[in-house]
Amino acid sequence: METVGTSGKPRRGGRGARERILAAAAALFYEEGIQATGVARLVETAEVSTRTFYQHFPTKTALVEEYLRSYEARLSQRIEQYLTRDGLTPEDQLLALFAMVADAASGPSGRTTTRGCPLHNAAVEAAGTMPDVRELVQRHKQGLVRLLTDIAARAGADDPERLGRHLAVLLEGATALSTSLDSPHPRHDALDAARVLIDQALPDVSSATEQSSQGPDVVVG
Amino acid sequence: METVGTSGKPRRGGRGARERILAAAAALFYEEGIQATGVARLVETAEVSTRTFYQHFPTKTALVEEYLRSYEARLSQRIEQYLTRDGLTPEDQLLALFAMVADAASGPSGRTTTRGCPLHNAAVEAAGTMPDVRELVQRHKQGLVRLLTDIAARAGADDPERLGRHLAVLLEGATALSTSLDSPHPRHDALDAARVLIDQALPDVSSATEQSSQGPDVVVG
């Protein structure tokens, strides 16, 4: 990971190269697709040599996995931000996860994105050819079902596992239908539907809302 | 579309060739992915020459579109079968669409499939490179939202468009989360969640169920 050669001049194979490859992968894998993005295009966009590329990532699949791990880390941070806002009840936290997905309909550049969840998209593209990628996505989504179930339990749901599974399907549908319809609306529809499912699964909604005055309850962190 | 040449012997470029190409596409595009399946692999599996392939499909994208139209036609037939079963109320019909997706967790061969909806998967893979494919999927899913909304209206929902949109997100989540989790369970969870959303959206569930004695109500056909 040296960034400076013996001559003191920056080398193409240094730390900056790895970051440029990962930045190129994040943009191209997400916007144009994983299978459609070849090493030649990554090398060109990252402005590195093919040799440097393979020094950092022995296979394209290794880069796909690093791209997904990096996305997972950013997503975990974002989930934490949404869950630990002041004064949220567990019920509010469940809705906050749907609000997060609705907010994400506008990408960082402000323009609408309908490319869906990078992890789900990777599972679709991996099919039978990238088993480690399938496993990474599977583990992540299992974690999401557990998170929803845990919050549902703290919210007092009669059957937290059932509510957790229901909300997980709805949350995945929010981004997936957004891709299929090429529209941000399903992300907002999912938040609206989540309200109905949560209201039905919690024994007494009004008393749960009153608990918000007791202050925040940290779940992730 | 001649199948017999001037010599009277069968030709590789005849009607059977087109069917073999479509059969190879249906299997490979679905199981291994659209982008991962090249023309060379299609030609090899279909046992046709590259020249014959391009005589039938000038581009791979043309074959992708034909593959999706063919799937859409089969799906429409299956939807009709589920909706026109004897004695279904509109409420039953909404649930029948979710039962259909749950039933489809077991593929034709009896083994479990977790490859999701071919149309959604195509939208993921098409990204920005196949705009006509994106449009085909978009039109299909818009039709599905309309179908759900129409049945919701006949079921007497207070806000049929809202229920239609909610159920569309859930239905897409059923297959999408099935892919991500590599599990058939989300398809069954979606059916269970649909019951909750439908129960909540219909003003009087018990009287709607009693209408089933009035006989079937054909929606598609």
Concise account of the structure shown:
The first copy, chain A, contains ten helices and no strands. Chain A has 221 residues and is mainly α.
Task: Please give a structural write-up.
Chain A has 221 residues and is mainly alpha-helical. The first copy, chain A, is built from ten helices and no strands. Chain A has helices at residues 15-32, 39-46, 50-56, 60-83, 90-103, 118-126, 131-154, 160-181, 185-201, 205-210. In chain A, α5 (90-103) runs antiparallel to α9. The two termini of chain A are 30 Å apart. At the A-B interface, α6, α7, α8 and α9 of A face α6, α7, α8 and α9 of B.
**pLDDT below 50 for ≥5 consecutive residues: which ranges of chain A?**
1-11, 207-221
For the biggest sheet of chain A, the summary is: none
SSE topology string of chain A: HHHHHHHHHH
Question: Which percent range describes the beta-strand content of chain A?
Answer: under 5%
Q: How is the quaternary structure best described?
A: homodimer
Task: Tell me roughly what share of residues is in helical segments of chain A.
Answer: 55-70%
Biggest interface between chains: A-B, 50 and 51 residues
Structural class call of chain A reads mainly alpha
Shape of chain A: elongated
Distance between the termini of chain A: 30 Å
Please give the number of β-strands of chain A.
0
- DSSP helix count of chain A? 10
Mean pLDDT of chain A: 87
Radius of gyration of chain A: 20 Å
